[in-house]
Structures
1.
Amino acid sequence: MQGRLFGAIEFNNNPNDRVYTPVDIARYIIKLFDPKGMILDPCRGGGSFYDNLPSPKDWCEIDEGKDFYDYTSKVDWIISNPPYSHFDEWLDHSFALSDNVVYLVPIAKVWKSWGTMMVIKKYGGIKKVLFIPASRCGFPFGFPCGAVHLVRVIRVRWKLYMRQNSVLKEEKEECDRK
Ligand SMILES: C[S@@+](CC[C@H](N)C(=O)[O-])C[C@H]1O[C@@H](n2cnc3c(N)ncnc32)[C@H](O)[C@@H]1O
């Protein structure tokens, strides 16, 4: 399969993009987050999430010719284990389609960069995290994993303080003066 072109970026066939969730873990995540209404699994793979979701539901899977980036219908929930190598673009598209997004990922992906945090902060925030050891997920890497529920509307204000270097420097100088 060819890498996919997204804007100027080409997504290659990163093997870590094709790790499949054990069915019991997918079921546990679905039970815990309890999605309702129209639910999309944007990258069905072998179906461990999709097959266990309540209806109504829909799916995409690039290997079966249904590219998530071409999906434009709004849905109530998105839930899955996404490809990791284009996580920011994947989040952007997910946020355009749904107010509730749950992804099982190596947990550091969520905090990995200023850009990712800005995308999440602009959307809303993090409502709930289920932390799972990677070994329990059967994934071929050692990073701890987590299912993260991202929401557009958060009832309690999410406090995430983001500081550019210049501001940090000013704040540090102010602390030093006190
Ligand atoms: C980490 S695997 C997880 C598969 C499945 N969700 C699971 O939990 O077992 C990510 C999946 O995303 C699919 N994928 C990658 N890019 C995609 C795209 N643009 N649209 C739809 N599916 C895509 C891959 O083929 C792969 O099956």
Note: The first helix runs from residue 23 to 33.
2.
Amino acid sequence: MANFNTHLNVAFMASGTMSLTVYKAGLIDDAGFLMCVALGTIGGLLPDLDSDNSTPIKLGFNITSFIFAFGLVMHWRSELSLLALMALWLAGYGFMRYVVFYIFTNMTVHRGVIHSVPYMAILGLGITYISYDILDIPLTASWFYGLFLFGGAMVHLALDELYSVNLSNMKMKRSSGTAMKFYQHKDKWWYLLLYVILALLVYFAPPFDDFWQQLRNPAPWAKLKLGLWPELIKNWLN
Ligand SMILES: [Zn+2]
């Protein structure tokens, strides 16, 4: 297992480089760039959160619940009356804070479950869903937010994998294959629940094709190639 600082630094560098690339290509705006770096870094720390760090988890969930509740009323502001909006605000906050939060913290206690690929995929898709469907953030930025959170978490799992291989290279990689986890038999019911939630999220996910088309559009990448080298080196190369 890599330690906290290693995870923080590697996740920050990885998400910083990747976000700068899509930012320079013009695929996200200033705010989106900062969000991607932040989400990628948070993603790199998420898998190690367990009952020992319940304070940051609670804080994170409180903030997420508030943003979700505000997003809901902003999304429905013109359709609903003031009283209905207040009820929606309370219901939205209560749902996130006491239903979703309850499920997630209970799973978090099972350390093996949070430290897995499907759990992180749920969080990533959840961010994309909330960002696009509730907060009305544009599709491209929403997909990037989810992907950066998920990507940061995958960097974390890969790092743990690397460290466990390194530590035990004398012992035939005894613990390898445990970090990049998709399923574990002792937690089969938790994994079943995870995959059901994941399937639902995939079904209701914002359209991926439009995002993919935009990524495949060569124009931003051509622009990036043009702006890759500083003028000084470009002149020297010519
Ligand atoms: Zn870890």
Note: DSSP finds eleven helices and no strands in the chain.
